[in-house]
Amino acid sequence: MDYLKQQNLASVPALFVICRYLATRPDGEDEAALRRVLQPRAMIANQGPAPRDDERRDVLPASLEVGRDIELLDAQGSRRERVWSLRESVRAEVAAVPAADSRPFRNLVLRSLGARAMQVIESGERPADVALALTWLLQGDPLSPLSTSWSDGPEMAVRRSGLDLAVSSPEQWRALVRWARSLGLATATAARQKSYLVVDPTKAVDDTLGRLPRQGPAETWFRQLHSLLPVLGHRALISALPGPRGSATEIPAATALAVCKLERAGRLRLLQSDDASSTVVLRLGHQVRQVGEVHVVEAVA
After folding, report:
1. Which superkingdom heads the taxonomic lineage of this protein's source (predicted)?
2. What is the pLDDT of residues 123-175, one digit of tens each?
3. What is the number of domains present in the chain?
4. What does the angle CA 259 – CA 261 – CA 266 come to, to the nearest 5 degrees?
5. Residue 31's domain spans which residues?
6. Which residues have C-beta within 8 Å of that of residue 296, sequence separation ≥ 6?
7. Which of 190, 200, 233, 267 has the fewest CB within 10 Å, making it most exposed?
8. Beta strands of the chain (E only): which ranges?
9. How big is the CA angle at 15 (ends 13 and 19), to the nearest 5 degrees?
10. Could you give the 3-state DSSP secondary structure of residue 146?
């Protein structure tokens, strides 16, 4: 399924509202009941300017379809009378997420999105457009941010990279920006009266530290990180992108930025090692650093 093209209005906040509600409904709910209970304004909170009436109608079904594709939701019955339920495999994890802090759910969506992309690649098919586009975005230079306006640079960058199969319109670019920000993979900043998207997965990596080894060889540690969050630079997803490939031992600049920020925050220790086989290269601008071991200082509960 292509999210940016087919389910353009799906959003992480909407999925959070849906999944939290369905966590209390083990027998599920039909779509009409979900629409009555989950008011439109709750489904579109923090999503920018007030949407048109047709957009409000589409947020719920688009988010449901994405939730099913990334295996958070199940649907039973005919299309017009489907009953939606939360998958048992994620029920306990969703139920444990506090209403005031959606970070664990954001991490669940990001992991599920990556896992689904890897499943599709292993089957010999093309992964969802949003997975490809996020992977491409995260191979970019965080020191050279892209405009949030499609016509002010991103359109040309996408076409030059050959990624227009995944992103080809202003609406799809806005949806991609929304996904990147909602998943903790990028931030927005303003300069010279323009808005820019800075690729910075610090929040996403921080949310994942509790699932990573407390310490270990850098090559192994980053391989585990990419296994949990493939869009950060898993070789299979990078290989699915058009264009040249980066070095297998060099970590993408955006991820390098994230781990360096977490080191400064006291969350990680990045150490040198005498074992060259376990060393990875962190390159950010003109700064190059070789890391042989990674230690998580404080694991996330």
Report:
1. Bacteria
2. 999 999 999 999 999 999 999 999 999 999 999 999 999 999 999 999 999 99
3. 2
4. 90
5. 3-100
6. 209, 212, 213, 214, 215, 267, 268
7. 190
8. 29-30, 73-76, 83-86, 146-147, 186-191, 194-199, 215-217, 250-251, 268-271, 280-284, 287-291, 293-296
9. 125
10. strand
One domain, residues 279 and 209: yes
Pairing of strands 250-251, 73-76: unpaired
Chosen domain end from 71, 100, 129: 100
Phi and psi, residue 189, nearest 5°: -140, 155
CA–CA gap between residue 111 and residue 231 (Å, rounded): 9
pTM: 0.91
Domain edge (last residue) among 100, 128, 160 = 100
Per-residue model confidence as pLDDT tens digits over 194-223: 999 999 999 999 999 999 999 999 999 999
Structure tokens at 297: 């200082």
- Residue 2 tokens read as 């292509």
CA nearest neighbour of 66 among 89, 49, 84, 46: 84
